[in-house]
Amino acid sequence: MTTRPLTLWQSRVLLLLTLEPQLVEEITNRMADRGAVLNTSRMRQLLEELTAAGLVTQTPRQGNAGTRYGLGAGPAIDAALDQAYEVTEGRSASLPRQPHP
What we know:
46% helix, three-stranded antiparallel β-sheet, 4 helices
């Protein structure tokens, strides 16, 4: 589990990775589609932070095809995803998550 709380940007990236493993450019484009424009160097930094925290894994592709990033596995990931939902919904971590209709 991470020792530091997730930032809003880390939370958004983590939640996007629940879709499937993705390239940096794919994640950046999906964020832009949702109105959050980040350059690729900032996206790489966020992915490095999440990887260092053990929340994201890297899968290098052959040649110059880039690296795909995906969610790690285990209880720390579940806790981080819960925190990410709370952060992106603007709620305190102490409040229980409400189911969506």
